[in-house]
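Troubleshooting log. The previous run stalled partway through. Resubmitting the same three chains, unchanged.
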Amino acid sequence: MQRTTHFRTGAILFLLPALLLFAAFFLYPVGYVVIVSLMKWDGMSSPGFVGLRNYSALFHDEVFRTSIRNNLIWACAEAMIQVPLAILVALLLARKPKGWKLLRTIYFFPHVISGIAITMMWGAIYNNERGLLNSFLRLIGLSEWEHNWLGGLGSAFPSVLVYGLLYIGYFMVIILADISSVSQSYYEAASIDGATRTQQDWHITLPLIKGTVATCVTLAMVNGLRQFEQVLLLTGGGPANSTSVLVLYLYKELQNFHYGTANALGTVLIVLGGLVILTVRRLFNAAKSDM
Amino acid sequence: MKLNALLEKLLSRTILSLFLVYTLFPMLWLVMASLKTNVELLGDPFRFPSPPQFGNYVNAFKSAHLASLFSNSILISFSATALNALVASMAAYVLSRYKFKLGPVIFSTLITGILVPVSALMVPYFTLIRTLGLYDTKLALILTYTAISLPLSVFIIKGFMDSIPGELEEAALLDGCDFYQKFFRVIVPISRTGIVTAATFQFLSSWNEFLYAMLLTSSEQVRTLQMGIRYFASQFTTDFTSMFAAIVISIIPSVAMYSVFQNQIISGLTQGSVKG
Amino acid sequence: MNKRRLLLTLPAILLILSILLSACGENANSGEASEIEIKFPSIWVAKDSKAATFAQIVKDFNEQNQGKIKVVVEEIPDYAAYEDKIRTNITTGTAPDIFSFDNPADGEFYYKSGNLADLTPYLDEQWKSTFLDHAFDNAAFDGKVYSIPFEFGVTPVLYNTKLFKQAGIAGFPKTYGELFAAFDKLKAAGIAPATQMTGGDGWVSMLWYSQLVSAIGGPDVYKHGLDDPAFVQAAEVLKKLFDYTTGDAVGLDNAGSHFLNQQTAVLLNGPWFIGRIKKEGIDHLYDSVEVAPAPVYEGGKGQPGQYIGFTQASLAVGKQKDKKKEEAIVKFLKYLTSPDNVKKISLDSGALFVIKYEVTKDDTVERLQTEMKKGMEAAPYIIPHFRASVSPAVGAEFPQALSGLVLGKYTPEQFVEQLKQADSK
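Second attempt completed without errors. Output:
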């Protein structure tokens, strides 16, 4: 009994700062977003209530459909390509090969450099006239593949998406941290049994870091849904809106004084993200109970 | 058997080298670009500068007042990181180590915050900070950064705390630890890797944040380094090379902090481990 | 044990420290009560060509009004960020004391907010007479003047005579027929004729479209909205122009780089670009650049010599509670827009303004700026560009619709339809 009251005050005291900050910086703004999404408002003159009209307009909108599609592709690509690669690299680094500390730092570089510089470099790599990619294709005799990568209806979105998938530093950090907390005694026992390092990784490490992999998959999918700066700086959503994503569309609608539509997009994004988080957790929980 | 091991090693080396080249390239390009003239940069982005324009660095440092912005960034990012780590670990501790009815609901609500498009919340954040009377103060940025990353930090830290075996806690209870002692003496030290990981991300995002650094401040005394970087953008043209020089200067602390934080994780590893 | 305690106390100390520091910062900010402080978030700082002269003018004003009025400039050189901040301010009812905006189409929204000060009472005949005719056309809403037009932009043709000579062309073509013939020659000589772009806001191609629309539909073309057939016809010609540009035009978002590197021979752009030609153009580019009006369209309603011209920056004032402060703000605005000061900024930066000033023989006026000014004065009419004449949403959709047109996704009719749809939200 004494323990419960003690726990209760402690729990409330410990949760309170987080909940206060969350209420001020998330609940209140999200409430605002939802309310404005029900209005026709230019952000300047007085708003008018229109119910769900902003939403129904979105579902008939081609740019909205393209954006959703692009976001979902992005989310899946990050979860299914970037995260597995990050796991692979983390497992290799955990074997502590020569210079692994330096590698761990360098792999993270792309996340330290500001987006302005990285996107400008990739814009230059993809450039039709002087780009490295086309020069490379010419060099290996594939000049018929030369292309205005960011300016083609079919090639622009894959170009914007692909390069970042190989920057694995972010998830590598999370996974490496988790691997480092796996007890050495497991491996010692396995070594005595004659298991190779790869076998150990497969049978010991992976099952033990499953929770963290779930964390990474969730974060990867959420990242895919939130992409914005990369697209804005590389293509601005073009050509013909083919690389548009939800947050970019939202930002443009704010610029266009369409505050109602912009906030409806914000609401859609939050709901969509909630669904994704739930699904990922279900999947991983189901996998857990299988074991 | 031996051949297999050799092949495995070779493959591993190849993979690590490929990623090394791929991730190092942007950094090398950035440094190279920061030594060019703007015409060289736009005309031929991949040729080496001739001669290297070290003046870009002088220009970046002098004209953008980087020195004073630098100290603001340090203060704001460190405070936001420390505060965020503390608040998030406290919340994660309760949510991870105690089962109570509202727990899962609170956790689910908190983590939906990860996907809120923060850049779309300019109007509510501005109103909030003004109402609190914090406009144009460093505290406004510290609080905002602490809050923005809170869901992510709680998510990461709780994940690590979840994997602490219950026996350890019971041992602590037998030792006579109460709620608070258990947190400080048992849980925090053990989940240090998780806290440090979250802190790494928190530091970087505070360090690189621009939108709210601009929106919630107006005087030079409270502005951050990111404002200095945008100093080279103007309405019709951007001085990219000086901007890149400023970026190179600005990432030195990020890299340093990253290394320091990451070394924390490794010392955790040598101390012997808990997971199982 | 000690180490752990340190880990915990450190954040607490840092937090307290930062609260104290920020509190100190606030105290330092409040000045003496008698002095009126005017806050002016401005883009004319840092690397902007007007920065030095603008700073000098503010300094002079503050010295002349010492102890009474002080103008404090908040530096936000990045225009996109500036716009975000200004709009957030207006939406939340905290419009800055003075701010500027570029596109008159945006201004209309700001006027409607009710958060700007009505400047009508201050705009006497004497002040008004220092401005060009029609300068205030976009400055009023509901019969009240809410902004003071300031910087003016014209965007004639800039062309590289050296490259033209190489292709055997003398002078700039007078009609679009001649233009395409000349572009064929340039192309045959291995030179990309003109810069086009669909990245960013599609600026240069938007200017070509503006020239075409009014060359075909005449100066009154925007009166019928986007229903005028000239918009479709202009789209057809613009699509053809994309056969005469660089291979990276679709997606390109840097307006100037090709022209500066002599990779294209023609660029539509304004006086603010002159400084870059001088400083960044390779192989003495400046010496071979000339100015010309855009061609006329055979059978179109436009006249030869038409100029695209538009208010490039307007100044507005946030609503004030204190009448005295409002008067102080207007005093500064009058000072800033006085012919003497405008002349200083104009001659130093190359920018043009809607305020008239006399040039004497002793003044050194830049050659290309003079040519632009002459062309503008000789123009039968001056018409704003496309983006200033339509809603912000249509302007933002333009580069998207254009890339669709060029890549064959849209026909010229669908292109115009796409633009119209942007407005329906």
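Takeaways: Chain B touches chain A through 96 residues (CB under 8 Å). The longest helix of chain B spans residues 2-33.
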